[in-house]
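Colleagues,

For the teaching module next term, I've prepared a clean inverse folding example: a structure given as tokens, and then the sequence designed for it. I'd like students to try predicting residues themselves before seeing the answer, so please don't circulate the second half yet.
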């Protein structure tokens, strides 16, 4: 078993006064608890600021997505109208070709 050193350099015994002076630089339990509480408060404040900042970004992104989605819906509607018009014109062109063929065969 290792013997605990109870003397300091020069073989002087370690006194309570010596320890009090040396241990003043170390934090106490109360100091540590206070620091932990303050650190927790700082973290909470930073998280709140970060959340607010992210909320702003989220709103901006959603606004841009909304306009993009509206544009896609508009393009789809235009495509449907265009397809309908093409089908309608295709029928007229086919009918027109038949009439031309009839006219050409009569002459």
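(Answer key — instructors only)
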């Amino acid at each position: 078993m290792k013997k605990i050193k109870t003397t300091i350099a020069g073989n002087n015994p370690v006194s309570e006064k010596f320890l009090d002076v040396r241990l003043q630089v170390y934090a106490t339990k109360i100091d540590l608890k206070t620091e932990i509480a303050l650190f927790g408060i700082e973290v909470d404040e930073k998280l709140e600021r970060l959340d607010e900042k992210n909320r702003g970004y989220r709103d901006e992104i959603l606004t841009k997505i909304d306009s993009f989605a509206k544009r896609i819906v508009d393009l789809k509607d235009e495509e449907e109208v265009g397809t309908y018009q093409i089908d309608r014109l295709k029928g007229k062109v086919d009918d027109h070709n038949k009439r031309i063929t009839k006219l050409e065969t009569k002459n």
